[in-house]
Design a protein that fits this description.
The protein has 15 helices and 15 strands. By secondary structure, it is an alpha/beta fold. The model has no long low-confidence stretch (mean pLDDT 94). The protein binds pyridoxal-5'-phosphate.
């Protein structure tokens, strides 16, 4: 091995690993670790192929501008390649996207244009229409558009496919793929058509997407659901997406996708993203229903480190109703961070206000219960700290006991849910006790989460 001189040289040639730790019935399951691309996902491949195609056909000139509408991995793949090749990159993204993604793109040198997420195709503020308009108004700019760009599937036909074929010793019975733009499944379909038409192409689709139904019935459903898994599933069939070789589709819901990503980490040590959870869950189901041994390949498309605060955060999983936990049939079921499980973030009366403030920021909460020997003796809200330090910042060094409120609104775990509203009306949080033991806090958002879970 010799040293590379540019990250672009490290795109592709990702490893494949078998997952014998997972029960796959008579089959053997392999995953290609696309998270090991330098930009962290399978989309580095198309970032490179689409930019190089535009260079070759003369549309992209030195110092030119690339525009794309995406909040996802394609933006990162393009940013990686654009920065190394000296292009300006403008990414248009809907304003509901997470701050993390925006920070990541900005740090890689992309210019970010936020646009409305509450409008659809055809509206001038819809992110794809906006991207097209920017291209029109910017001399030397090109719209790379992964959904219509033939260099997207080509990257998989000429890169991903041959790599898999060689790594698997020319022996692959089935490929399980998701569809975002359709680049992967289209490129691989074309590659396997040439080298081994018997390789079965299997679609893994999030529940709510229209694609699986299209494979099963040939019809496009009109009602589209919603799903939390990112990067795959569609409400339309993208122009570059050719599903003609896909005869089998497997639908996976969010709960199974997230659970599978967690299990894969526990059993194999691979930190995979949530869409990889969908792919691996579908691949496992496919493997287990076979009656003959088969060699099945799927992907780890990106890393789970992007989803640590969601799929790998038990509290978020409980809040979303994606993870079950012990229920009591009383108000304790509304507590998102139970004290008995060590979940509640607390302070001691002697902790300084600086400590309490730092702990609130770290845990993204606005109040902390103050505990003395497992008994709650007060609550410090951020407004209590503000009142204490507003005129004298030296007070950050004072103990929590001087700022905390002692007028606590306590409810017994057995109380009726209606008893929470008057407490919230007073601007307080509800302190839940089970007998004389502190169980945890219920805030307005906990009640909202509970009501949403009950409605689902
Ligand atoms: C995160 C993520 N992005 C993209 C894709 C595939 O996208 P495309 O259809 O655009 O090739 C996958 C496939 O599973 C994925 O998991």
């Amino acid at each position: 091995m010799t040293a590379a001189h540019n990250v672009i040289e490290l795109i592709g040639n990702t490893p494949i690993i078998e997952l014998p730790q997972i029960d796959t019935g008579p089959c053997r399951l392999f995953v290609k670790l696309e998270n090991q691309n330098p930009g962290g996902s399978i989309k580095d491949r198309i970032g490179l192929s689409m930019i190089e195609a535009a260079e070759r056909d003369g549309r992209l000139k030195p110092g030119g501008t690339i525009v794309e509408a995406t909040a996802g991995n394609t933006g990162l793949g393009l940013a990686l390649v654009a920065s190394q090749k000296g292009y300006r990159l403008i990414i248009v993204i809907p304003d509901k996207m997470s701050q993390e993604k925006i920070f990541n793109l900005k740090a890689m040198g992309a210019e970010i244009l936020l646009t409305r997420s509450d409008v659809g195709k055809g509206h001038p503020d819809y992110y794809q229409d906006k991207a097209a308009a920017i291209v029109k108004d910017t001399p030397g700019a090109i719209y790379i558009n992964q959904f219509e760009n033939p260099a997207n599937p080509l990257a998989h036909e000429t890169g991903t496919g041959p790599e898999i074929w060689a790594q698997m010793g020319h022996d692959v019975d089935a490929m399980v793929c998701g569809v975002g733009s359709g680049g992967t499944i289209t490129g691989l379909s074309r590659f396997f058509e040439k080298v081994n038409p018997d390789t079965e192409m299997v679609l893994a689709d999030p529940k709510g997407s229209i694609l699986a139904d299209y494979i099963d019935t040939g019809e496009l459903k009109t009602e589209v659901g919603s799903w939390l898994v990112e990067g795959i599933g569609e409400d339309f069939i993208p122009p570059i997406c050719d599903l003609s070789r896909v005869k089998r589709a497997i639908t996976v819901d969010d709960a199974e996708s997230f659970q599978t990503a967690r299990e894969v980490l526990e059993k194999t040590g691979i930190l995979a993203g949530t869409s990889s959870g969908t792919l691996i869950a579908a691949a496992i189901r496919y493997c287990r229903e076979q009656t003959e041994p088969k060699r099945v390949v799927t992907f780890v498309c990106d890393s789970g480190n992007k989803y640590l605060s969601k799929a790998f955060n038990d509290y978020w999983m409980f809040d979303q109703g994606l993870l079950k936990r012990k229920t009591y049939g009383d108000l304790r079921d509304l507590i998102s961070r139970p004290f008995e499980e060590g979940g509640t973030v607390t302070a001691r009366p002697s902790d300084t206000l600086m400590t309490v403030y730092s702990r609130m920021k770290l845990n993204d909460v606005s109040q902390l219960p103050v505990m003395e020997d497992d008994q709650i003796v007060g609550i410090v809200h951020e407004s209590d700290i503000l009142l204490s330090v507003y005129e004298d910042q030296e007070k950050f060094g004072e103990p929590a006991s001087i700022a905390m409120s002692k007028g606590l609104e306590t409810v017994d775990a057995s109380a009726n849910i209606q008893e929470l509203m008057p407490i919230f009306d007073h601007g307080h949080v509800a302190i839940v006790k089970n007998g004389d033991r502190f169980s945890g806090l219920i805030t307005r958002i906990d009640l909202l989460n509970y009501l949403r879970r009950s409605a689902a």
